[in-house]
Amino acid sequence: MKSVFIVAMAMLFGTALLIPSIPVYAEEDGAALFKKQKCYKCHGKEAQGSKDQGPQLKGGKFMKENSDEEIKKVILNGRVGKDKKYKEYKKKMPKFEGKLNDQELGTLIKFLKEEPAP
What we know:
49% of the residues lie in helices and 0% in strands. The chain is mostly helical. α2 (27-36) packs across α6 (102-113).
């Protein structure tokens, strides 16, 4: 019986070593990053958009119609001039390149893709 337990434990831990670690993102992390990076100044406190400043993100058209990779590019590179998609908003989308690492970008995008609370 003891040898069965040892074999089972070895299999369990051996399998765990083969599985790549997957970052676990908490909603608070995304909300905290949204606040820390001051995204709310243009997109509203709840990412609901702000008149003349920036479009709705949570539950918005941009988040629904674009892949994570496309969203990542916009966050990193910003949007100004001819690259600006939503011309009705006066402010330009600033670059965040060098301000967020890949894990933070993933956390922020996941948070923004979630539907807003009713």
